[in-house]
Predict the structure.
Amino acid sequence: MTSQSQFYHQTRIPSTYARWWGHFYDNKFSLMALIVFIFICLVAVFADFLAPYDPTHTFIDAIHKPPSWYDLGDTRFLLGTDYIGRDIFSRLVFGARLSLSLAGAVVLLSASSGIFLGVLSSFANPWLDALMMRVMDFILALPSLLLAVVIVAVIGRGLPNAIYAVAIVLVPHFVLITRSAIKHEIPKEYVTAMRLDGASKTRLFYHSILPNILPPIIIQLTLAFSTAILEIASLGFLGLGAQAPHPEWGTILSESHNDIMFASWTVTLPGLAIFFTLLSINLIGDGLRDAMDLEQK
Amino acid sequence: MLYLVFRQLIHLVLSFFVLTIFTFSLAQLFPQGISFIIEAESNNIFSGETSQNLVNQTSNFFVSYYQYISQVLSGYFGLSTVRGTSVFDEFFIYFPATLELSFAALFFATGLGLPLGIFAAKHKHKWQDKVIVSTSLAGSSIPIFWWAMLLVLLFSLFLGITPVASRIGFEYDILPITGFMLIDTLISNQDYATEAFISALHHLILPAIVLGTIPLTAITRTTRSAMIGVLSEDYIRSAKTRGISAVVVVWKYALRNAMIPIMTTLSLQISVLIAGSLLTETIFSWPGAGKWLLEAVNRRDFPVIHGGILAIASFVILSHILLDFLSMLVDPKWRHR
Amino acid sequence: MYKFSVFFLAAFGYSFVLVGCNNNQSSTVRDKILVYCSEASPQSFNPQLVTSGTTFDASSRQIYNRLIEFSPGTSRIMGSLATRWDISADGKQYIFYLRKGVQFQTTNFFQPTRHFNADDVLFSFQRQWKKNHPFHNVSSLGFPYFESMELGKLIKNIVKLDDYRVKFVLNNPDAPFLATLAMDFASILSAEYAHQLIPKNELSSLDTQPVGTGPFQLTRYQADAFIRYKAHPDYWKGKEQIDGLVFAITPDPSLRFARLIAGECDLMAKPLPIHLRAVIDYPKLVTLSEPGSNISYLAMNTTKKPFDDQKVRLAINHAINKKLLLKIIYHGNAEIAKNPIPPNMWSYNDTVSDIPFSLEKARELLDSAGYSKGFDMDLWAAPVQRTYNPNAIKMAKLIQQDLEKINIHAKIVSYEFGTFLNKVKNGEHHAALLGWIGDNGDPDNFFSSLLSCAAARSGSNASYWCDPDFDQIITQAGQKSDLKARTQLYRTAQEKFSQSSPWVPIAHSKQFIITHERVNNFHLTPTDGVYFSGVTLKPLHKTEQLSKQAEK
């Protein structure tokens, strides 16, 4: 892919990222998913303006109102109210903010520790490396939710603990991907060339290796982000994550689960929120992966 | 061949070792520390000394770890603080339910996933393929607990064709001999044995579908990509030109070679099934190990929490090793070493 | 290739439909078995050890009998294992004539060789009473009713006159004594079974593998899943019409309702108001209701600051909007409480004024007590549904909101019910949402169990409030047999209670149960007990598809 300059016959070769973006852009599904995801992020950021009410405010006279387009609905509450009279639309909007920021915190935590450990491990002495791999393999082998539940059981339930628990569960993914990407890069010729030139380990790392291992790490970040949202929602559903009255989507589902027969909208709507968020992130991840694959060919 | 077995055994022992170190350290964080598992039999190891002294003496990591592991290996996981029963025994009461559910889910996932994946591979890039791929992607983005709620709302409450919860109708008194309801109903010598069997099957359907949905999407996707890879190979083309029917080609030649990535996927799905069963068992009130563990977390029953994760994790490790072993058997690269 | 996949999918779908539609088979097994969706697992199968209604439903009310019982559906007493009784003139001696020919249950672990006689009565009471009795310390749960009602102090002696006559000698006259003997903890156990357990050293089996004289015997129990009973073939009133009874333990109320409409259960315990409203759409369901002899309250632990200050307690009373609680939690199916006993209990003092909802008064009181800045506290609520409180956690949240308005920051603390009760008994709370269901139609049951000094010592008085004047009044009232005198004393007690306000009394709720129309002859009792003796079932028909009728 080259582009021609107008005056000189200079070919401008777009950078990897630009090419990546180009592939991604061509894939209509990924693009659409990205737009949806940006929309959700905007909703989360501007929640204060979008939500008509405080998500924890209970309207005692409006319990279990169906969405406004039903006969029994109330135009004050676009998507209806829950079992205690809280506006569902406001809760979902603030829930978006909560889910995205929680997942962001989790990914930040696990990615930074994971990448750090991965880098350390690949440059450390082989015995330590092997030990680290054993431990990481072990954590990876365990079912993620099970591990998160047990961690929460020990350190207690609630928001910050849920973040730590899920972050711990996701660390091995980053360690492994970082390490394998680095191991993949080191044998390459340009690295050997740099080493022959006398580059120090630090310079080697920051200058040559790091830029080239970013693609798989970025993909892992999107995967981890979607996993984090799901795990936090699952913990919330089990009553071990965000506690009521936090409008976390999973917690909302745990509260409305009881009324599924009479107020199905309190179940379908939060679930759809989770579903679309996860779907868009997964599609973005898929799109990035396809783009990277195309790039490699 | 022996080498393979040996290798797997070493893996098993090492993994189990790491697991016990993990659970041992975890148990240190419990309010009463590791006293729930070491206290009881302590008089056998150091006769005459009180258990209180022993717990105080556990400044020595290796000694207490040795005591811990000897307890664990002898099948003693402590007593439940809520009910006073042996954690080890309780696990074997509840775990078969989870196993039965997981098998049913896996059966559903492979039974539907393999054909769908093959079908998609055959119609690569055509609309059938696109539909399957997109539904697959959608399916892997659905939170299990929500999916369960939707299915229950539709099939159990609205249409009334599936039961709401539990493993079997309450009117059947089935003794838990194996723990697998499907087997226990048939071997029970009650006159309603077959009726009970059908009831058990009936109760198994919806939870199995819910639990099996994510593995279904994974298996479909892997089968599809593996089959696409395989079907484009030369030997497939030559088989077809030789006149071998499409069905035989797919099942006898192609699938064999696609099996390896599929088995890797199956291995990954074990963890997915266990994690999913935590949520599925909650919604369907299925008396399995997941529900047992969650209730223990809610009741702060630490011996059960510890025993639960130790037992479940051991099972996961064991099945991984077994599946790895099986896939190595299937893989021709290994077979003729 | 196509054909294979198509065939497989078709077979799969067909088997699904086949098994699904099989649901309609009229099962003769199901016809004779009553399935009850209960709300929690029992703590034990021995009613002596607990106070929870759930445990009584699973044990004393099905497996055991007592000397005296309540006439079904009422609070009138009648003889059961005792056919008649004589009371001495001074009210201190009771002679009970025991029923002959009563058989204990034969189970997998016990075969009775004799009929019920006086030895069993002696055993059942002495176990709770005598500290050196071999079975006294078997369970860590203790004997909450026996102790809080101070029967140890009341009873001077229990004498076996002969095999079928037992004499109770009391230290002082006690008006409610007969009603007390009808309570669940006074169930009669088998002395023969107990003695068989001693050499085997399996004493705890007395409580986990029960043997009684009642209409149903325990066959199998799976914790948190189900309890199975079968009809006692030699029950002295005659074998029950239903062959088997199953308690399907379902803590989630909506799941209970879902099971009921799916036909998996025939009755459901403790329906939520939303279920009561939904019954209209299901013609085969019947709602039964009964004014409850209960109270729901917020107990404030007077041993912990600042709840030792009466002004603070009064302030909290003023700050809570009870009308709102009734509307949201009970959906109107309750009455506001101002006294510890319900309005349908004799001696209820209506002249006591309810503490009005007033934030200004609340703030005034807090200021004068020196807490104008407010304070932090914990507010305990259990995650279970009780007759007196359908949703304690929700109530706690609403109270939390109310208290915030006067600067009191309440943190909600919750535990699994059994653990919750134990911790409250140990006094770990600042304030706890609790309740009580009257057991015997006598005010003494409420006052002594919940507000007496003895109860403060044994832990069932959650506010640990021990006022000597108040205590004296209720003790006196418990001893006199003159109804008028007792009424006067209880009325005074209620006034004292209102002045001290160790509680915020919240509501008296109605009790409901929803049943399938095939269940006949089932009655609710004022004490909120579930008794299945005498219940009959109509067989299920092939067209029994409740949910189809529900299509909206």
